[in-house]
Specification:
The complex is a heterodimer. By secondary structure, chain A is mostly beta strands. Chain A has strands at residues 5-7, 10-13, 19-24, 31-37, 44-50, 53-57, 65-68, 75-79, 88-95, 105-106, 110-114. Helices cover 0% and strands 49% of the residues of chain A. In chain A, the strands form two sheets. In chain A, strands 2, 4, 5, 6, 9, 10 and 11 form a seven-stranded mixed beta sheet that branches. The radius of gyration of chain A is 13 Å and the shape is globular. Chain B is mainly β. In chain B, 0% of the residues lie in helices and 52% in strands. In chain B, the strands form two sheets. In chain B, strands 2, 4, 5, 9, 10 and 11 form a six-stranded mixed beta sheet that branches. Chain B has a five-stranded antiparallel beta sheet with strand order 1-3-8-7-6, with no helix packed on it. The chains are: A mainly beta, B mainly beta. Chain A binds chain B through residues 4, 31, 33, 40-45, 48, 55-56, 58, 91, 93, 98-109, 111, and chain B through 4, 31, 33, 40-45, 48, 50, 88, 90-92, 96-105.
Chain lengths: 115, 112
């Protein structure tokens, strides 16, 4: 069990560019979550998947954000036309069962800086 | 929406001291979670609490689920340098909810 992995760990981009992050959950975990964390704050929920189905999206997830989990394994989070306010740590978590708030395992995050 | 308020925001202590921090909510929570986050890493679950009044330990860490269901406490005994980090309380805002909301954290510093 290698844990949740995220790639890249750091991303610096210019305003207006598109970026894509990848999350590989723990093997056979059917739930995958995306959170965003800004400086001095706790993580905030963005969206989650059960297998390949996206079941809930936060109001924080504007139209510029899209997440996919095409085969129910890894997931990608894309941000189009990045803005400086998108600068944050993007965290991915996975869990092995349906209602599993106590067993969400977090990855190390992708830190995005928008210049 | 529901919010979790953590206090203190930061603490400066000497190695070997005990630490206490708490988390309050304006509404009832049915599960309380305590996470620790090291710099540049994701949060790691320390303790999960499921019943009012429950007291649970994990090594030198002890957490309690408040009787009112609107608060929780985390204590660390005999702090060591590796305890440095940010401690978050968290929980599902509604029973059966699949997402977690987090407090803003308590940042623990240990003075040399």
């Amino acid at each position: 069990d290698t844990g949740v992995s995220q790639d890249p760990r750091h991303k610096i981009t210019k305003r207006g560019q598109n970026v894509t992050f990848r999350c590989d959950p723990i093997s056979e975990h059917n739930r995958l979550y995306w959170y965003r964390q800004t400086l001095g704050q706790g993580p905030e929920f963005l969206t989650y998947f059960q297998n390949e189905a996206q079941l809930e999206k936060s109001r924080l997830l504007s139209d510029r954000f899209s997440a996919e989990r095409p085969k129910g394994s890894f997931s990608t989070l894309e941000i189009q036309r990045t803005e400086q306010g998108d600068s944050a740590m993007y965290l991915c978590a996975s869990s092995p069962r349906d209602i599993a708030t106590d067993t969400q395992y977090f990855g190390p995050g992708t830190r995005l800086t928008v210049l | 929406g529901q919010q979790l308020n953590q206090s203190p925001q930061s603490m400066f202590i000497q190695e070997g001291e005990d630490v206490s921090m708490n988390c309050t909510s304006s509404s009832i929570f049915n599960t309380w979670l305590w996470y620790k986050q090291d710099p540049g890493e994701g949060p790691v679950l320390l303790i999960a609490l499921y019943k009012a009044g429950e007291l649970t330990s994990n090594g030198r860490l002890t957490a309690q689920f408040g009787i009112t269901r609107k608060d929780s406490f985390l204590n660390i005994s005999a702090s060591i340098p590796s305890d440095v980090g940010i401690y978050f309380c968290a929980g599902p805002p509604f029973r059966g909810d699949d997402k977690i909301i987090f407090g803003k954290g308590t940042r623990l510093h240990i003075l040399p």
